Amino acid sequence: MILDLHSHSIASDDGRAKVENYCKWIRKKEVPIDGFVLTEHRQFDFAGDYAALARDFDLTILKASEVETEYGHVLVFGVTPALTERFDFGAIGLPLVRVIEESQHHGAIAVPCHPGRTKVGMCAHIETLGVPDGVTIVETLNGGSRGSEDESAQAMAAQLGYQGVGGSDAHIVSHIGRCATRFPAPVRSETELVEALQAGEFEALSWK
Amino acid sequence: MEVEDLKEKFLKLNFDEAEFHVDGDDMVGFALACGETAARYTDPADPDFHATPTFPARFHGRRMLPRDIPLGGKIPLDAGKAVMPQKKIRPGTKLVGRSHLHDIYEKTGRSGRMIFLVSRMELFDEAEDLACIVDSRMVVRERPGE
Q1: What value of ipTM does the predicted structure carry?
Q2: CA-based nearest distance B77→chain A, Å
Q3: For the whole prediction, is pTM greater than 0.80?
């Protein structure tokens, strides 16, 4: 089971892709993924219901969030209504440790994304803020990374013993599936995704 | 610039009002420039002739932002438009556009912190029916060290 764990639709302020068009693109271009996770910026898209699209295109479409912390951007998988009450998803500069702890408490999991990116990635902030507690997984392959940003992420992950996932960070249709994550068993819900990540059996993939 | 302060002081307050007269030739020119070929957009003789959905994006008030909004001397950059048509706009219509700041939010990116200002113009026709909503998004980038 291969899922792109990082994508944005028009529900994000800078997203230019409709979810249906991601589905069409994946099938028309035979993108080798079985589904994708919508990680909208600074919000959780409670309103979006993509069950019909998932059924029609035989794809897994899950929802998550990308929030902003003092260590950069962080994907939160397994978001629940209760979790969205615990901190302001729309804020920038959220304390990463709090995001991690609250996520764990509510059955979710927080994954710093594009850590090699300047200003919004964890690598640069570790130099000034130190190594944060509680991180177990980071995004080591990001479809929007430039230059050596992914190499920096992978080096940090290796040094600190983090596992790595992959996601395209797609904002436009043609970028979906550039990077993804392979799981050994089917993942059909947000709960199963969290369980799969907690189980630790996954592999980051790139087709960039 | 604290976003919460800006929101408290400036959100939802009308800061501009302007009148616009919808001209059929302008409608055709705009439609053709967009690549439209449908007669309802390009032929004034068509019984359903009306403006393309994005036509109202060409209307601008006297101001894009409230006069006294404190942006530290920075000039906002265009960060995109969204047009939400509410009814068909016919030639000869007189529209009144009223503008307010609809949203202010911040985000971080490779270049650092950015503040986004969403200026919303609501266009009303002679019957005071809402004909269209046009959001103009502008961004102010924080310089390093600010």
Answers
A1: 0.80
A2: 15
A3: yes
